[in-house]
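INFO  loader      accepted 1 record
INFO  loader      residues=571
INFO  predictor   begin
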Amino acid sequence: MFARFRRLTLAGELLVLQLALIVVVVAAVGAVSLAQSEATFDRVEGRRVTALAEQLAWNPLIRGRLGKPAPGEVLAPLVHSTQAQSGVTSVTVADAEGRAVASTDPTLVGTPLPLVDGRTADDRSGWSGHIRVGGAQELAARAPVLGASPADRGSHLGTVMIGVAAPTVWQRLAGASSYLVLYLGIAVVLGVLGSWLLARRIKRQTLGMEPREIAGLAEHREAMLYGIAEGVIALDPALRVTLVNEVGRRLLDLPERCVGMSLTELGIEERLYDVLAGKDGQGGKGVPTGKSGSAGRREGPGTAGRDAGDAIAIRGGRVLVMNRMTVVKDGRSLGSVTTLRDRTELARLERELGSFRSTTELLRAQAHEFANQLHIISGLTQMDEPEEVLRYIRVLSGHRKSLDLQVTSRIDDTAVAALVMAKSSLAAERKVRLRLSERTALPRLGPADSADVATVTGNLVDNAIDAAAEGGGGDEAWVEVELRHDASGVEIVVRDSGPGVAPGLAHEVFARGFTTKAARGGERGIGLALTQLVCTRRGGEVAVTNTDDGAVFTAHMPVGRLAHETMEAVR
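INFO  predictor   done
INFO  writer      dumping C-alpha cells
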C-alpha cells in the first residue's frame, strides 16, 4: 500500500492527502454539529416541556383531585388529552409520595417516578433533565402540584412530569445527512481543484519534476559534491553562497555556516572576488599605464558576469585555479557555479620546471651566441685576417671575464650568481642589457634561502626583461638587478626601462597574478603571484612603484634563523 502511495504523482499524493484531510474535517464538523444539535434540542424542548408541566400542575382538576381517593380514574383522560394535544412522549401525575397515579405509560402507574442523576425522591422542586423510561431516553420536566383550597393552600399535593423522547445519534445524522453530503461534495470539489492547482504551481517551481526525482537529484548532488576532490561553490545573482562542498570551504577558508552569506561578509576581496563575481574578463584589452602612448603591460578587470576559465587567485597562501560558469534558465540568470583546484604543489613543480626551462633557454641562447661568434671567426679566417681574429677573441674573452668577475665579486651565493649570469645571456638574446647595481652585495646563503631568493629574483628578472623588450627603445632597453643583505634579511630590487605599471593596478598586481604575458596575448601567468607567495610565506613583502625610467619591483624576505622565527610567527 505504501509502495503504491509512493508511486503516485505529485498531484495524486496531494489529492489523497486533501481527501484524508477533508474526511477528518467533515468528521470533526459532524461531531460538533451533533453536539450543537443536542444542546439546541435540550434548550428548546426543555423549555417547552417545563412550560407544559407547570401549566398542567396549575390545572384546577389536578389540584382538586390529588389527595383524594382514586384520583387516577379522573385524571387519566386529562393526561391522555394533554399528550395528544402537545405531542409529547409521556405525561405522568404522581401523589405526594412520588408514586404515579395516572400516566400515558400504564407500566408507570403505582411505581415511583424516575429520577434524573443527582436528584432524590424527596426533592419536590421543579427540574428538567434526561431520564430513562422503559429503556428509552427522554428529556423530562417535573413541576410540583400545590394546594389551592384555603385549608391546604401552598401544601405539596403531588408532581406532574412530562417527557419527550430524545433523538438518537443516527436520527440526528439522518436529519443532517443532506447537509453533510452537500458539505462533503463541496469539500471534495474544492480539494480536488486546490490539489491540482497546488500541484501545478509546485511543479513549475520544481522544473516539472516529481518528488522522487527531486530526491534522486539531491542524493546525486550530495554524492557528486562530496565525492570529488575539487572544490565547488555556487552563488546566487546577489553573490550570496547557496552551496559549497567541504573541499571548497577548506580552500577558501570559509566558516562552517557560510551558506546564505555574501562574498563581502565572508571577507573575499580583490582578485578572488572578481573571479567569483564574474568580473575577471579573459582576453580583454590591457589597462593603459602611466606613460602616454604605451601599451598596457598588466591586464585589468574585465566585464562583469563573464565566465572565467582557469583563472588564478591566491587565498590563504594557496594558489587556486578556478573555472566559473554562469547558470541560466529560460533566459534568467540563476547565479554561477565555480570549481576550485589547489595548484600550490603544481606551482612549486612549475617553478622547478621553470628553472630547467631557464637553463635550456640559456644553453640555446649561448649556443646561438657562440654560433654567431664562430661564424665571425670563420669569416675572418677565410679573409686571411689572423690579427683581427686574435683581436676579436681577446675582446670576447675580456667581456666574459668582466661579467663573470662583476657577478662573482658581488654575489657570493653560487646559485644566485649562476642565475644572474644565465639571465644575462637570455636578456642579450632579447636585445636587453642586464646590469648589476654597484650596491649589490650578497653573501652565501643556506640551501632553502638560496632557492627562494633565486626564485624571486628569477621571476622578477623575467618579468622585467619581457617588459623592457616590449617597451621598445631599441638598444637602450635595460634591466638592473640589485641584491642587498642586512640584519633584517635580503632585499631584491629589479628596475627596468619598460612602460611601467598602471597606477590603478600597482597595489593589486601581485594578488591578481598578472604578468607581461597577459598583456601580450591574454594568457595569464603566476610568476608575480608566486613571488608574493614566497615572500609572504617567509614573512616578507613585495611591492612595485613607477619612476620616470620604468617600473621598480622591490622584494624583501628574512633569511636564516630570522626567516625561521618569522615563519613560525606567521603560522
